[in-house]
């Protein structure tokens, strides 16, 4: 077997064939295979240790494997950050069959870590699926991949065929009694299908619309009315390492509450945007944005205006929150969320009205049309922001925007407070009049921007002004 | 449900309220006097939580939170605040959102005045709009089928119509399309919403997005008068609201009768009123003059002519056919006139397309609710309910799809229920009894009637309780599976089921309007009112009636045969279009020609009426007061709403007049008088009177009891010749019947029939689809258009009855047990 070829990073630290991935210093629990040229082939994967975690798992009892994962405190990487080992325990007793569904419908704006995991290391994901199925006693897994990710689909399909042929998937895996089938399914291009119950609807062949809650977890009633565990791609990609090295080693990385590493996708006005594997809880936003090992600061020496700390749905953070560590609990308490790990940085040249419109338009287009407040409210917000940008804004529009937001997401909306991080903040998530959080997500940019930069909106409306380039950020008084 | 012992105590606006176990909060609040706004919520459909109008603040111990009350089951200790500031703001907010894209063209909207969006905006909505942008635009309106129009601008996307189509009707042909505020309801291209139940979507639409052609721009709701009545289109007896303006019926709406139709109607029930108002309605009596032509005349002359024809005639030479569309009261009047005054028993409301009356009455009966018991077993030994009894189909479908009932089909052709059936045994015509015997282990091991013995026994194990456990009620839906086989085929099979299944019950699928009233009130040979035979009932009627028939008379086919042989001097037709409705057209033609004087009571000048000598115009159901009896035996009110055309009279009044001219007093001067007399002569009707009916108007009053089971002699069925095709003739929802043909909305919907074969059988014929072949049957050779149909069973050939294309009645020979057709080689 020829030695796998490692491709070295370019001058900026990017691995050329893994678009956007930065091979920086630090532990590589899930992205270790990315630098190999043929990392997505079975040959390369086997040569670099693939399926050793599976073999380790098969040598133990399923309950043992489940315990190992629970002890590792593997937090879900989809956005909610719920411990996977605990979620696995939610299936009702004695109801069979059950299913594992892998959520590969990564579509939160700014998030592209699952795509890399599927494109660069499909075998790691397949191995993770197998370990989860073994721990849970499942024999059927569905892998739902976002419709637009053609390369990920192709590589997963090839990898799965190879894995079937090599005896890692299918009947009597690795010559044991363990058998699993993995079925691939391509999405049809709806953001909302990233929501797990909408994903299940789509998988069943229906229109992707969120299901009503309760039941709150598909673990009770999921795919085809059966108990179903839905896990994110990155969550499962962690399993081979955990099984190979053990929960204790895993907890050696990151913080007590959030062990292990996480992939963060940073985009926007930084010097080196990209996907980074980062130790959770011990790294701060300041490290990530300004650290030489990470994004190396704001482009052209500009000033930071705001940043989105965890996907387009997250309320914005500002300079005061830079020293928060990447810990879901702390970020929630400070009024936003870590979410899917997508960080968007805006420098002082950013026109916040345009930025707002850009995000609101996304949610208006992606609203599934089910709940009236989301369907009608998001497009109304979009129309008002368009009107303001067209120079036809009215002073009353700003309170109207906030009140529309209040009718989608009633009560005080989470917003990062001035001063010390966390003080006076309304914790995330917000209340909602809708079934799922998509509608309330459209409120995040409006509330964040209007509370902080109301004068920029007013300048647009009363003086038809855009934001002047290279001036100090306009900061309002107390936002309460 | 209403057991206080199991009730859930909740607090609504500081008031303690008892909710039923499992009751949704929105329903519990409404029941106890607190109305919460809603659009998507519908009591007969599953909650969807889509419109978000019903948000209320609920505290279940974790602090107050806004929750959709249409999705929330009441739980003990729940604190509900429907008037809090947050509740009010959320509800007003949702209404504002719904109005954002709603066009507010209320002045020209048919819904204006009865619009939940108007009403709830008034009560719960914001006073003014803050939306200044352009609303979304669509082409308006677009037809989604021949009768229903969709205005997507008005639509508030509540999912009621789409849920109805998918969940209730099973015709998921309208869907949400697009996303966000571009979401719209629409059909797929080239796939119209061709559903028999499409009119229900118009009724459940909470705005004016869906409108039906017959009512569009016809009236303002505040000008409508309404009366509750019962549909007589078929024997389900769906409750309806008859709405009229300026003495003209404009709309039928379904009324939610819990025991019957749950508020749904099939489109035939809904739109048939157009026929009642048709300009072709008979409004004046007609008399055949010396020139041989029918000419208008006065009631005096017409009744005199009819009475003269009936005077001094041997009762054995009088026959009365039809009457299944009459009210109970008219049926009693006519039975009394025919059997008690004229003394003939040659009386039959069925027209050779039903089942023996005494046999049907002798079977243990089920109600619709009993047939649809959750977890029960339903055996279909009859026609396709989707085609013949639309509202019953919806109940059956619900029972099977949502309530865990098990459906077994024993039919010669696939039905509308086939997709939901546990077992579909495709039985060749005439061989149902053999298949049923095989179910219970009687018979050999060779396939029989097109069914393997193993399959039959598997079904037998289910219906006898062996396979699925006891305590699951078994109901047989019994009716004529095919008009091309004698009724004996299903009668014999039903008797075997009756003998083998403990506590089995039967639900009659005789279809014509009030045919069950006719059976109960004696419009059938050998029977007297109250489900009694002649001999058994005679003592009761001796005092009340001048006479009673001595012996059991002829049924409809026998009467027509007698008439053809010149043995009938007077033939009375009570709304009976024998030339169309009697399956054997040749017999009907000969009977009508051979009869002496023909007296016809009818709404329209049908071909049969055109051959009559005296024509007496009768009133339609919207013009008549009375009652009808549905297939369960449920008596419910039919109410007069408008005046009849010309001088048309109720049928009972015509009987009274004729009797008077023959010197007899029927003792009936109003429909109510019938109930006074029935309470004396018919014990099974003793608990019914106009007062009781008024109290129980919505659900009606069930009539139960009946004679002992009769066992007609078994039918001899010739064995099947491998080279022939056994003919199956069924009905479809829309046909060339006189009422459908006179309803503008329904007339164009009747299909064209052709002789259909199972696809491999068809391929073997070597003819192109739509080509013609010559077939030989008992009535000789006939040239027909043919085609393949996957619903047809191998070895059979199928036709629809009373349609354009091929006339099935020309192939049917009434005396034959089954009709075998052979293909004549070219």
Explain what you see.
The complex is a heterodimer of chains A (480) and B (826). Chain A has helices spanning 42-47, 52-58, 62-72, 84-87, 113-120, 122-136, 150-165, 196-203, 233-237, 239-245, 247-251, 285-290, 328-333, 352-366, 372-389, 396-408, 438-463, and strands at residues 99-104, 140-145, 181-186, 228-232, 261-268, 274-279, 304-308, 342-347. Chain A has 480 residues and is an alpha/beta fold. Among the domains of chain A are: 40-250, 3-Layer(aba) Sandwich (Rossmann fold), CATH 3.40.50; 352-461, Up-down Bundle (de novo design (two linked rop proteins)), CATH 1.20.1440. A four-stranded parallel beta sheet of chain A has the order 3-2-1-4, sandwiched between helices. Chain A is globular. The model of chain A is unreliable at 418-423 and 468-480 (pLDDT under 50). Chain B folds into four domains: 8-100, Ubiquitin-like (UB roll); 286-354 and 514-702, Rossmann fold, CATH 3.40.50; 359-508, Dimethylsulfoxide Reductase, domain 2 (3-Layer(aba) Sandwich), CATH 3.40.228; 725-824, Barwin-like endoglucanases (Beta Barrel), CATH 2.40.40.20. Chain B contains 28 helices and 36 strands. In chain B, the strands form nine sheets. A seven-stranded mixed beta sheet of chain B has the order 15-14-27-26-25-16-17, sandwiched between helices. In chain B, strands 31-35-32-34-33-36 form a six-stranded mixed barrel. In chain B, a hairpin with a 2-residue loop joins strand 1 (8-12) and strand 2 (15-19). In chain B, helix 9 runs parallel beside helix 23. The N and C termini of chain B lie far apart (68 Å). At the A-B interface, helix 14, helix 15 and helix 16 of A face helix 2 of B.
């Amino acid at each position: 077997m020829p030695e796998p070829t490692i491709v070295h990073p370019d001058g900026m630290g990017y691995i050329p064939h893994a678009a956007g991935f930065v091979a920086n210093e630090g532990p590589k629990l899930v992205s270790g295979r990315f630098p190999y040229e043929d990392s997505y082939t079975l040959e390369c994967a086997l040569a670099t240790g693939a399926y050793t975690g599976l073999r380790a798992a098969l040598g133990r009892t399923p309950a043992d494997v489940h315990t190992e994962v629970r002890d590792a405190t593997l937090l879900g990487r989809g956005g909610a950050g719920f411990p996977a080992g605990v979620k696995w325990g939610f299936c009702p007793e004695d109801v069979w069959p059950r299913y594992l569904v892998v959520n590969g419908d990564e579509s939160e704006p700014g998030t592209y870590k699952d795509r890399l995991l599927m494109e660069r290391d499909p075998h790691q994901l397949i191995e993770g699926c197998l370990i989860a199925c073994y721990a849970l006693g499942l024999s059927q897994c569905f892998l739902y991949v976002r419709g637009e990710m053609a390369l990920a689909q192709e590589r997963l399909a090839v990898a799965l065929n190879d894995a079937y042929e090599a005896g890692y998937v299918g009947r009597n895996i690795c010559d044991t009694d363990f058998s699993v089938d993995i079925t691939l399914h391509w999405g049809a291009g709806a953001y909302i299908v990233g929501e797990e119950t909408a994903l299940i609807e789509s998988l069943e062949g229906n229109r992707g619309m969120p299901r009503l809650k309760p039941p709150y977890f598909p673990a009770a009633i999921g795919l085809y009315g059966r108990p179903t565990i839905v896990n994110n791609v990155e969550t499962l990609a962690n399993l081979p390492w955990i099984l190979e090295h053990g929960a204790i080693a895993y907890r050696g990385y990151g913080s007590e509450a959030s062990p292990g590493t996480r992939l963060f996708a940073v985009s926007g006005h930084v010097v080196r945007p990209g996907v980074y594997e980062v130790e959770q809880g011990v790294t701060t936003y300041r490290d990530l944005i300004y650290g030489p090992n990470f994004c190396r600061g704001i482009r052209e020496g500009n000033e930071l205006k705001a940043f989105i700390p965890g996907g387009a749905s997250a309320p914005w953070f500002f300079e005061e929150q830079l020293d928060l560590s990447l810990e879901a609990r702390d970020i929630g308490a400070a009024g936003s969320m870590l979410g899917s790990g997508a960080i968007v940085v805006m420098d002082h040249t950013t026109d916040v009205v345009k930025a707002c419109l850009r995000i609101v338009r996304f949610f208006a287009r992606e609203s599934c049309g089910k709940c009236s407040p989301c369907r009608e409210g998001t497009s109304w917000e979009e129309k008002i922001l368009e009107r303001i940008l067209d120079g036809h804004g009215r002073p009353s529009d700003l309170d109207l925007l906030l009140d529309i937001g209040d009718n989608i997401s009633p009560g005080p909306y989470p917003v990062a407070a001035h001063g010390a991080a966390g003080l006076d903040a309304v914790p995330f998530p917000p209340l909602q009049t809708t079934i799922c959080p998509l509608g309330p997500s459209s409120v995040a940019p409006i509330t964040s921007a209007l509370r902080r930069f109301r004068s920029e909106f007013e300048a647009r409306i009363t003086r038809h002004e855009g934001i002047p380039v290279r001036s100090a950020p306009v900061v309002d008084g107390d936002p309460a | 449900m209403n057991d206080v012992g199991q009730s859930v105590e909740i607090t609504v606006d500081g008031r303690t309220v008892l909710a039923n176990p499992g009751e949704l909060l929105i329903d519990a609040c409404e029941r106890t006097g607190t109305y919460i706004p809603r659009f998507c919520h519908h009591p007969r459909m599953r909650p969807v939580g889509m419109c978000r109008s019903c948000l209320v603040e609920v505290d279940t111990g974790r602090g107050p939170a806004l929750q959709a009350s249409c999705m929330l089951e009441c739980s003990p200790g729940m604190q509900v605040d429907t008037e809090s500031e947050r509740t009010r703001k959320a509800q007003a907010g949702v209404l504002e959102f719904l109005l954002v894209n709603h066009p507010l063209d209320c002045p020209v909207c048919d819904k204006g005045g009865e619009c939940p969006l108007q009403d709830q905006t008034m009560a719960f909505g914001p006073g003014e709009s803050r939306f200044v942008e352009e609303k979304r635009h669509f082409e308006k309106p677009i037809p989604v089928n021949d009768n229903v129009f969709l205005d997507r601008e008005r639509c508030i996307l509540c999912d009621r119509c789409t849920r109805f189509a998918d969940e209730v009707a099973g015709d998921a042909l309208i869907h949400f399309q697009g996303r966000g505020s571009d979401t719209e309801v629409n059909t797929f291209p080239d796939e119209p919403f061709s559903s028999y139940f499409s009119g229900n979507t118009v009724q459940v639409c909470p705005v004016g997005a869906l409108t039906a052609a017959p009512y569009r721009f016809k009236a303002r709701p505040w000008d409508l008068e309404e009366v509750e009545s019962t549909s007589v289109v078929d024997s389900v007896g769906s409750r309806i609201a008859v709405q009229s303006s300026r003495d003209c019926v404009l709309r039928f709406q379904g009324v939610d009768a819990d025991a019957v139709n749950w508020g749904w109607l099939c489109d035939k029930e809904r739109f048939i009123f157009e026929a009642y108002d048709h300009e072709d309605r008979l409004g004046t009596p007609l008399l055949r003059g010396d020139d041989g032509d029918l000419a208008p005349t006065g009631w005096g002359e017409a009744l005199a002519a009819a009475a003269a024809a009936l005077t001094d005639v041997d009762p054995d030479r009088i026959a009365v056919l039809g009457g299944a569309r009459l009210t109970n009261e008219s049926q009693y009047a006519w039975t009394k006139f025919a059997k008690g005054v004229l003394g003939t028993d040659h009386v039959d409301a069925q027209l050779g397309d039903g089942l023996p009356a005494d046999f049907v009455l002798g079977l243990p009966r089920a109600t619709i609710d009993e047939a649809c018991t959750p977890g029960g077993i339903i055996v279909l030994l009859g026609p396709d309910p989707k085609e013949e009894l639309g509202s019953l189909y919806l109940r059956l479908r619900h029972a099977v799809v949502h309530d865990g009932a098990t459906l077994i089909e024993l039919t010669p052709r696939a039905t509308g229920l086939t997709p939901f059936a546990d077992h579909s045994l495709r039985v060749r015509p005439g061989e149902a009894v053999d298949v049923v015997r095989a179910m219970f282990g009687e018979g050999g091991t060779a396939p029989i009637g097109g069914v393997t013995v193993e399959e039959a026994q598997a079904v037998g194990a289910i219906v006898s309780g062996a396979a699925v456990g006891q305590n699951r009620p078994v109901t047989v839906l019994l009716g004529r599976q095919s008009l091309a086989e004698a009724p004996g085929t299903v009668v014999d099979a039903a008797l075997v089921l009756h003998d083998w299944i403990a506590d089995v019950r039967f639900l009659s699928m005789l279809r014509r309007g009030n045919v069950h009233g006719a059976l109960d009130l004696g419009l059938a040979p050998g029977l007297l009112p109250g489900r009694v035979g002649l001999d058994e009932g005679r003592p009761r009627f001796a005092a009340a009636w001048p006479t009673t028939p001595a012996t059991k008379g002829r049924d409809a086919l026998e009467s027509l045969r007698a008439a053809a042989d010149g043995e009938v001097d007077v033939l009375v037709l009570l709304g009976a279009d024998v030339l169309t409705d009697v399956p054997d057209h040749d017999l009907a033609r000969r009977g009508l020609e051979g009869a002496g004087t023909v007296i016809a009571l009818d709404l329209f000048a049908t071909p049969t009426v055109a051959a009559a000598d005296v024509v007496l115009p009768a009133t339609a159901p919207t013009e008549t007061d009375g009652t009808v009896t549905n297939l369960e035996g449920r008596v419910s009110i039919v109410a007069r709403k408008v005046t009849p055309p010309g001088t048309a009279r109720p049928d009972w009044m015509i009987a009274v007049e004729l009797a008077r001219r023959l010197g007899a007093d029927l003792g009936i001067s109003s429909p109510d008088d019938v109930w006074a007399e029935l309470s004396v002569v018919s014990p099974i009707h003793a608990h019914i009177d106009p007062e009781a009916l008024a109290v129980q108007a919505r659900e009606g009053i069930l009539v139960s009891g009946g004679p002992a089971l009769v066992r007609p002699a078994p039918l001899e069925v010739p064995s099947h010749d491998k080279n022939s095709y056994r003919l199956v003739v069924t009905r479809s929802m829309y046909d060339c019947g006189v009422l459908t043909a006179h309803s503008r909305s329904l007339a164009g919907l009747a299909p064209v029939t052709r002789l259909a074969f199972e696809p491999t059988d068809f391929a073997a014929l070597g003819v192109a689809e739509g080509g013609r072949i010559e077939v030989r049957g008992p009535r000789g050779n006939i040239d027909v258009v043919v085609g393949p149909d996957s619903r047809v069973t191998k070895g059979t050939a199928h036709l629809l009855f009373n349609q354009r294309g091929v006339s099935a009645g020309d192939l049917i020979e009434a005396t034959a047990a089954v009709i075998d057709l052979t293909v004549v080689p070219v």
